[in-house]
Each structure stands twice: as structure tokens, then as C-alpha cells.
Amino acid sequence: MTSEPSTMDTPLKKLVGEKTAKALAGHLDLHTAGDLIYHFPRRYDERGEHTDIRSLDVGEQATVLAQVQRTAVRPMRQRRGNLLEVTVGDGAGGTLALTFFGNQAWRERELRPGRWGLFAGKVTEFRGKRQLNGPEYVLLGEGGDGEAAANEEIEEFAGALIPVYPAAAAVPTWVVARCVRVVLDTFTAPDDPLPATLRASRNLGGIGTALREIHRPTSKEALYRARHRLKWDEAFAVQLTLVQRKHRAAASPARPRPARPGGLLDAFDARLPYELTPGQRDVGVEIAADLATAHPMHRLLQGEVGSGKTVVALRAMLQVVDAGGQAALLAPTEVLAAQHHRGILDLLGPLGRAGELGAADDATRVELVTGSLGAVARRRALAEVASGAAGIVLGTHALLYEGVDFADLGLVVVDEQHRFGVEQRDALRAKAEQPPHVLVMTATPIPRTVAMTVYGDLETSTLSQLPQGRSPIASHVVPAAEKPAFLDRAWRRVREEVSAGHQAYVVCPRIGEGPASEEEPPAEDDNGRRPPMAVTEVAPLLAEGPLHGLRIGVLHGRLPPDEKDAVMRSFADGDLDVLVATTVVEVGVNVPNATVMIVLDADRFGVSQLHQLRGRVGRGSAPGLCLLVSEALEGTPARERLDAVASTTDGFKLAELDLEQRREGDVLGATQSGRRSHLRLLSLLRDADLIRDARAEAIALVEEDPELARHPALAASVAALVDEERAEYLEKG
Fold first, then answer.
1. CB count in 10 Å sphere of residue 185
2. Using an 8 Å Cβ cutoff, are 196 and 210 in contact?
3. Structure-model confidence comparison of residues 49 and 510, the more confident one
4. 456 three-class SS
5. What are the tens digits of pLDDT across the range 120-159?
6. Residue 95: its H or E element
7. Band of the pLDDT at 48, cuts 50, 70, 90?
């Protein structure tokens, strides 16, 4: 270990020793002094104040500040020796049991009632009681035997505010705190990346002070100033990245695709069997204007499930076809690509059947290109695309590769839940002489600050009205553990709907036996909970039990593509009464006759996902019903989440709730990119004003210095905070 000055790039093994550095690298992905300095505390506990133990979720790795209330020693039943059970409390009525196996008299003497400490471990449940098995801990204050209470450890917590770090079982928070102290003793802060004029106008402190105060705050006020300054670094880096991308895109040339009076679009509007909503008309005007410019459109179209985004996108595609170009729609799965194909052909009628008997004079062709096409059909489809005869082309990302050549690609529409990144954009550029216009659609409503921070380089349009004829959806929680009779009633409701001529979905979190997949959470649960319900297990139970005699189909991502399409088609045609499926039905599946959905183990799904799922019912004239079945008990966070989903169909409210409950890093792409992120502090909800201010400053700076040539420290900081993978994620729609 060294006492020489350390910089951001100094390897940790030079500062904290080889063994500790290896643990930090292996468990927390921390390799350099800079990595550790930017590994900020997730919260601060205060001596004498409580941690809310009752808010802990079973299965999470938790660190709590608590006081020992009592200890008890009893012999173990299954083997020789004693078990020490220590009860700790948070001062607000919440308690945790700590269990230690083996004869450890010294530990009983150390953990005497009245002592305060930090206790870290995995939260489990045994006979309805929360517990930590063999937790790591450090006691606060003097006295006590044992290594855990060593003064060297206690020194980290000499102040009133006790930092609690993101940690691991092998590297608890106090080990991280000790390493941070060692690094801070020799650390030389980097050049301040924020321009001095910006720091002065926004009253922001220096970077060195902020980095020290966030780890070892001298007061609550100093901590607030440090966090505020570091949040500015994060927000400014993200906004600069997005504003630069928008600036570069605006400078790119694109072929204008203006509307043509008397063309396909006008003919389509004339044959629509219903009126467009005012929102659809307004968004249509925005998109039409974008397509007519000489710069590539890059627009996000968001709207509730069923708000009519597909019709808006189809009208944009027809405008491009009228202007002599082609349009491609990328769907996330072959099932949805095939469904879009059928739906668009139905909407277009004779306008989409060029070359066929009964086609309109100025009709185009609509082609489906997927990996499961037979060789002959594939060759024919690719020839239609290459010649330009197919004005509208539908498929998965396979459209961008595998020898698919367009005559003149003018517009790409990216359907829900696609991550449309740099690689795909490069592939598209290779297919077009000039960058095509891009329209990204999402049915997950996005709070304003998320749109500003994650989709900040896209213009945003929102559809908030539902088309006429769409029915309301009622949602209810079915508490299966507390009231089993309610579940029996749910299955009777399915039979009633089927008797009335309607259809039903039953959604499960898991497929069943076989390798894990994206839609498949792990079957095992070592927190005392049973495995999630599985499609392949639930379907036969329903067929033999409460839904006996009904026509039941099964749909999940592990089926071959042609089988998936056949099942979906059977359900859409009314040949099946009940579809037991995974979240493969979450996006885009449109069966107006389906009126009821039962989501099993609903607490295993996210808020936005549940909102998406229930949008599959109530798509026709009959009202929809969504029943959220869960064993989560009243008052638990999981149950409160489900109650919130049941209480409102306002997707924007639910999106904000989802954002509150998820880590910000998930929203900003840390988990998607698989890389550790330095975007630690920014809250997209709480820091909305700061994000808005950072965007305004970023726009002003990029206008005068587009490549940040006059601000090298800032450019380096942006590169570090928003690395290439993150920049790619932020660019994705």
C-alpha cells in the first residue's frame, strides 16, 4: 500500500492491498480510486434514528442500523451445538431476528441489549418473522469483544451521519467505508469539469469538496451541497450527450417526403370506417411536417395501449410511399410482425394489394419478411422489396440484415420495446442512400423528465385519447392467500365470459421446464417462496379443473415461430376460448373479443408491465376485466403496488409509480448495458427542475461549442459518465 498521492486511475491494490482490492473488483466491480470515489453511499443513517425494518423486502441484501433488544441461546434440534438468536429493533416497532449457529459465547457477550450496530445480510422469512442468518455486523461505540467491534472499523462512523454503501455479502458497507477513508487520505481531485461561469451562475461548489463531503459529510447542509453538485455533473453529462446527438442529426441530410394530394394517404383516409381522434390528427400533422423536411425525422410517439398509434404510423408510411419511397416497420417478435401484417392489410383493403384482382389503381404492396418464411416465399418477398414494388415492409430486426435490400427506404417505424441502437442505425444507413426518417412507438407512458433524460434527442408526440368504441377496463386484486374463494370466483368469471361468447387470457410469469429465457424468471427461490406459476404447469391444471371443457391454447417464447403464429391465429379467429401465455402477449396482440385477463402471481410483474398486459382486454365494444392474483399480504410493498395498478388506468400515474420503485440506473440503462454506471444520484422525479436547467445550459453550450473543443475537462467527464455503451443506450428509442 502506498502513501503517494493517488488519482482517479490509481489501481486500488496499490491503496488498500491485494486481497481487499480483489474483493472490491470481484463483488462490486471497483478497480481504481476513481471507481471507489464515485461509489457513493446509497443512504445515511443517523445515530439514535431508526431504519424502517418493516419496509424491507424478503430476498434483498440489506444493511440496517438497529439496537440489540434481547438475546437467547437454545440447543439446535438437528445437530449438536447451540443457536444464538438476537432480536434487534429499529425504534419504531420493526424487529429482525439475527441467527448465529455454533457455540459462540463471545458473540453473546458482545451483542448485549442496548448496543447499536450496523447489521448486513439477506432478508429471509421463517414462520412469518423477518430474519438475517449469520449476518455481518459492526457495533458502534466503544467496548465489546471480537473483531467486528474493532476500533479500526468504528472509526469510519465517528460522525453523526453514517454512510451506508451499496455492498455485497463478502464486502459489507463498513469495509467499503474503510477503503474510502484510505483513498481519501491520498486522493487528488480531478480538474473540475464544469465551466467556472456555470458553477458561479448556479452556485455550485468545487468537485474536490463535493467528493469528500459526500463520503464523510461534516453536516447535513454540506452533504446537500455535495449531492446537488454531483447531480449536476450527471444531469449535465447526459443532456450534453443528447443535445450533441440532436445537433448532429439536424445537420444530416435526408430526402424530403412531402404529402401528395390525391394519393394513397387521401384514399386511405376516405375509406377509414371511423373518425380519427383530435390527438391522432394533431400528431399526424406534426409527423407530416417532419417527413417533408430535408433532415431525418427522429420522433417518439407515445400513447396508451389502444390509443391508435398503429393508424398514425400507417398514415406516415403512406405519405412516404406517395413520395416514391418505402417504409419498414420493425416489430419485436415474429408473432407481432405477422399480426401487424394482417392488421395493415385489413386497414388498407384494395389499397394494399397491388397486382391482385380488385386492387385499387394506385395500390402498393405490403410484404412480411421473417426468418420463418419458406425459401420460395422469401425469395419472392425479397424481390418485391428490392424492386420497390413493396411500399410497406414488415418484419423483425432481420429486416436490417440477411440480404434484405430496399429500392428507396424512406421511413423506419420501430414498434414497442425495441432498443434501436447504433448498430441497427448503421445497418439502416447501409440500406438507404441517405439516413431514413425514424418513428419510434411506445405504449409505456413516459414521465416528462424520463422523456427529457432518456429520449432527449427525439421529438416527442403523445396520444392521450382512446378511439371511440374502446371499452373501459376494470381491475381488481384477488388475494389468493387470504381469500381462496375469490380465486374460485375468478375462474367462474372466465366461464361466464366464455358462455357469453367472449375469450380470456391467463398470464403466468414462467414458461416451465427448460432453459431460462428473457420472459422466464428463475424457478428457484431461496427466500422461502414457492417458484412462480408456469404456463406448462397451469394449462393442464385448468383443463382438468376449473376450466374443464373449454378450448385452451398455450403460447410462450419457446414455441417454434410457425406454432406461435398458429396458436395466435386460432385465438384471434375464436377457435380457442382461453389462451394461457407468458408476457409474449404483452405488446401488440389485438383480439377485440377477449374481455377478461387473469394474471397469476401478479406481484412478480412490474407496474408498467401489468398496465401493458391488461391493455390486451377491452379492445372491443364489451367492457374488459383484469384480475391480479397474488399471495402478497395486505400492507406489503408488493400488495400496495398491485392495489395502485388496480386503482387507476392512468398510464402516466403508473409510470411515475414505476419510476419511484425502480432504481434510477435501470431507467438510464445501467442494467441494460451490463456496465457499471456513474449515474448514481440523479432522481428523474425529484430532480425534474435540475434536469430542465441542465438541458437549458447544455443547449446553450453546444450552440457555441458543438464538440466541446474549448472545454476538454468537460468532454473527458462526459466520456467517463456517459461511456460509449451508455451513449448508444441513450440514443436508442
1. 10
2. no
3. 510
4. coil
5. 888 888 777 788 877 888 887 644 433 343 344 444 555 5
6. strand 95-101
7. low
pLDDT at residue 732 tops 50: no
Domains in the chain with CATH codes: 12-187 (2.40.50.140), 264-463 (3.40.50.300), 473-516+531-648 (3.40.50.300)
Identity (one letter) of the amino acid at 192?
Answer: D
Q: Which of 237, 249, 239 is nearest to 723 (CA)?
A: 237
**Contact 579/559 with Cβ under 8 angstroms?**
no
The strand pairing partners of 39, in sequence order, are: none
H or E element that contains 558: none
Are 568 and 555 in contact by the 8 Å Cβ rule? The answer is yes
Least confident range of 85-94, 236-245, 518-527, 570-579: 518-527
Q: What b/e string do you get for 217-241 counting C-beta neighbours within 10 Å, with b at 16 or more?
A: beeeebbebbbbbbbbbbbbbbbbb
How would residue 733 be classed by pLDDT, with cut points 50, 70 and 90? very low
Paired residues of 44 in beta bridges: 163
Model confidence over 669-684: pLDDT tens digits?
433 333 344 467 887 7
**What nine digits make up the cell of 438?**
425514424
Strand segments, DSSP code E, in 304-456 are 326-330, 365-369, 390-395, 409-414, 437-442
Among 466, 442, 445, 457, CA closest to 301: 442
* Whether residue 327 has pLDDT greater than 80: yes
Under a CB-based contact definition with an 8 Å cutoff, are residues 219 and 76 in contact?
no
Q: Which amino acid is at 691?
A: I
Cα 311–313–316 angle (5° rounding)?
110
3-state percent helix, strand, coil for the chain, nearest multiple of 5: 40, 20, 40
Q: What is the pTM of this model?
A: 0.67
Q: Give the contacts of 19 (CB within 8 A, at least 6 positions apart).
A: none
pLDDT in tens, 222-242: 999 999 999 999 899 888 988
**pLDDT number for residue 453:** 66
The whole-number pLDDT of residue 666 equals: 47
Distance CA 349, CA 696 (A): 47
d(CA 104, CA 126): 22
C-alpha 12/C-alpha 9 separation (Å) is: 9
Classify strands 594-599 and 459-463 as parallel, antiparallel or unpaired. unpaired
Residue 1 cell numbers, joined:
500500500
User: Rounded to an integer, what distance in angstroms lies between the CA atom of residue 67 and that of residue 687?
Assistant: 34
The string of DSSP codes covering 122-138 is EEEEETTEEEEES-EEE
Helical ranges in 435-552 per DSSP H: 448-454, 484-499, 535-544
In sequence order, what are the beta bridge partners of 625?
A: 474, 596
